[in-house]
Amino acid sequence: MKQGPYQLLGFLLLANLCYSQVGPTEESADDPRFPKGHCAGWMGGAPGHPGHNGAPGRDGRDGTNGEKGEKGDPGLEGSKGDPGEIGVKGIEGPRGFPGNPGKKGDRGEGAYVYRSAFSVGLVSGVPVPNIPIKFTKIFYNNQNHYDPTTGKFHCNLPGLYYFSYHITVYTKDVKVSLYKKDRAVMFTFDQFQQNNVDQASGSVLLHLDAGEEVWLQVYGEGEHNGIYADNVNDSTFTGFLLYPDMDHE
Ligand SMILES: [Ca+2]
Known about the structure:
Elements: H1 5-21, E1 117-121, E2 137-140, E3 146-147, E4 152-154, E5 159-180, E6 183-190, E7 198-208, E8 213-218, E9 225-228, E10 236-244
Antiparallel strand pairs: 1-2, 1-10, 3-4, 4-8, 5-6, 5-7, 5-8, 5-9, 5-10
């Protein structure tokens, strides 16, 4: 049986007490420090030396929670996330400002080719009957499609043409006809009244083929040639291409 610390201490104390009662003159027969029998003359001895420190005690119970600490620093930035889905199409924006003007285009082809026009007048009156009236006062004849030496307009560009004439009538009646290709296609008659000046006029649209000619001529027996002109009275003949034929036949 194992002895505890208190039992060991009691034993040592008792042994010490017995030894203290034995005087030097009362020696034991066997051993003076351990007399036989019980301690003779038992008395309280002096206090013993302090014992050794005991073994460490058990851990105490857990304490109560402390106060909440201060807020820590922000953590590190996380990694980049995946791309999100494509959003809904936005509303159409407002109309932009007009752009700058473009560069001037190249000159077109054949612009001059489709021009044909003339405007002419009489220099003096009373033309000769039964032949084309020769208008020699030139207002415009840049393409020279009108021939002042013959009095005829020569068609170079097939198409639709406009012709007109304004005639001063003086001293005699006027019967005038517009000819196309040796045939009178339009007639104008004006009777002269004494002591007066009259005008006769006419206009027409004609389609001409290339090479066809148009002119004015007094028709009849030559008695109605009162076509007149001087410095202040004109008799004119005008014609121009209105629409060219696009398929040059
Ligand atoms: Ca008249």
